[in-house]
Design goal:
The complex is a heterodimer of chains A (241) and B (110).
Chain A lengths: L4 H16 L23 E10 L9 E12 L3 E11 L6 E12 L9 E11 L5 E13 L2 E13 L6 E12 L6 E9 L2 E15 L2 E12 L7 E10 L1
Antiparallel strand pairs in A: 1-2, 1-12, 2-3, 3-4, 4-5, 5-6, 6-7, 7-8, 8-9, 9-10, 10-11, 11-12
Chain B lengths: L3 H19 L3 E7 L2 E3 L2 E4 L5 E7 L5 E5 L4 E5 L4 E6 L5 E7 L7 E6 L1
Classes of the chains: A mainly beta (241), B alpha+beta (110).
């Protein structure tokens, strides 16, 4: 199988360099799920996902950020999802932190071009405070035989009377080996405010019946500098029907 | 040699878009009575192929293959395009998610 290294990797590394040099980055927990650009028609899902991180300078210890969501596709190119966001740490018990609406759009047909493209937009409102956040970005995936390389690059605007207006960015990269439907090992890199993390991840799908599927994900990310959390663990379950 | 430059410009203007439009070879796959026709598709190895999937049934079907890394819903009475490859030589099974016991097939890349 032919793989044009230059045409595949140069745009990804250029995007990476652009985002890593951005002066401001995202607040809060940076490590999160990595999105893929594909939308499946006639699909609904119930999703739970959490990120736990241990020690990070200036942050509460043992922070856990969890999301509970319902989502569904609209046609074969759009997917919408509504989230409740919960937070917990050593200093505070589990509480509702905010609400989030997310829309994803598949831009290109899978396999048609050198890579597959999608866009994502998210609007988040913090519960009990005038803090808003709008994120938008690109999702790109390149298939190389049984390997898939994915990049999520987001620009985030925060505003409201309870927060300083700020423009931020995050970048997440994943390379995944499609070993078996139920097990796909991966390596991930996440970058955002005070966080640069790298480590192994895995995901898979368990078929529960016709058009019933359980998708699972887990990742162990280790901080690459003194500002990053020492360890972040992300986990997620999606029941698709 | 007269008009060689305008001719070259015209050639570039038309030849490049035509070559870009030609695209990968198209192979038609039909779904009838929850079966794929043909159920075996031979394609050239290391070359991208465009599958035109026509669902003749009234009900939706999903073309699914972990080996091909593809999942695509085709509503009843509708058509869909699925790009596959370039593939290394070998066999790549696919099935219909809605009727997996009957709707089965494979792609053979040679």
């Amino acid at each position: 199988m032919k793989f044009d290294v230059r045409s595949t990797l140069i745009p990804i590394f250029a995007l990476m360099a652009l985002l890593l040099n951005h002066p401001a980055h995202s607040d809060g927990v940076v490590v999160d799920k990595i999105y893929h650009p594909y939308i499946e028609a006639m699909e609904q899902e119930i999703e739970w996902r959490s990120v736990w991180q241990d020690q990070q300078p200036g942050q509460e210890n043992n922070r856990v950020l969890s999301r509970l969501a319902y989502g569904r596709s609209f046609g074969d190119r759009w997917f919408g999802e509504a989230y409740l966001v919960f937070a917990e740490s050593t200093e505070r018990s589990l509480e509702l932190e905010g609400y989030e609406l997310e829309v994803r759009h598949q831009l290109t047909e899978q396999g048609q071009y050198w890579a597959d493209w999608g866009v994502i937009m998210e609007l988040e409102k913090e519960d009990g405070a005038d803090i808003w956040e709008f994120s938008s970005g690109l999702i790109v995936e390149k298939e190389l035989g049984r390997w898939s390389a994915t990049a999520n690059a987001l620009v985030i605007q925060e505003w409201g009377s309870d927060i300083d207006d700020e423009l931020e960015s995050t970048l997440a990269l994943q390379t995944r080996y499609r070993f078996k439907p139920y097990l796909e090992p991966a390596l991930e890199f996440h970058s955002g405010q005070d966080t640069k993390a790298f480590g192994p991840a895995m995901q898979g799908n368990l078929r529960l019946g016709i058009r019933r599927n359980l998708h699972w994900e887990m990742g162990f990310l280790f901080g690459l500098d003194s500002e990053s959390p020492d360890t972040s663990i992300r986990a997620g379950l999606e029941y698709e029907f | 040699m007269k008009y060689i430059v305008p001719r070259l410009i015209l050639l570039l203007l038309f030849a490049v878009p035509l070559s870009a439009r030609s695209g990968p070879p198209v192979i038609t796959l039909e779904i009838r009575d929850h079966l794929f026709f043909p159920d075996t598709i031979e394609i050239p190895a290391n070359q991208k192929v465009k599958l035109l999937v026509i669902n003749r049934d009234d009900t939706a079907e999903e073309f699914e293959s972990f080996e091909l890394n593809r999942e695509k819903i085709i509503p009843g009475g509708a058509k869909a395009i699925i790009f596959i490859g370039p593939l290394a030589p070998g066999e790549y099974p696919f099935f219909g998610e809605f009727f997996p016991k009957t709707a089965q097939g494979k792609v053979i890349a040679r």
